[in-house]
Write a structure and sequence with these properties.
single chain; Nucleotidyltransferase, domain 5
């Protein structure tokens, strides 16, 4: 049976969101892919620009909103965070 999987990457300059339907042992199909430039790494060392934090939160909320819409009402079985530097 296929499983809905959401991937969220919070990079220093962008937030990436991927929603895919995965069939174990068979493969996957990407249903939705979003990338939002946030520029969190653009501040002074050790700081996060407030506008970048706001943009990051909006991008994460957008991704979470898309899960039931694109996933045909199904919640994601797994949500994974990949790579943060």
């Amino acid at each position: 049976m296929a499983e809905l999987v959401a991937l969220l990457e919070l990079g220093s300059n962008a937030v990436r969101f991927v929603l895919a339907r995965v069939k174990p042992g068979v493969g996957f199909r990407v249903l939705c892919e979003e990338r939002t430039q946030t520029r969190r790494g653009s501040g002074r060392p050790g700081t996060l620009p407030m506008e970048a934090v706001d943009d990051t939160l909006r991008a994460v909320l957008l991704g979470l909103t898309l899960v039931p819409l694109v996933g045909e009402g199904q919640g994601a079985g797994k949500v994974a965070r990949i790579g943060y530097r």
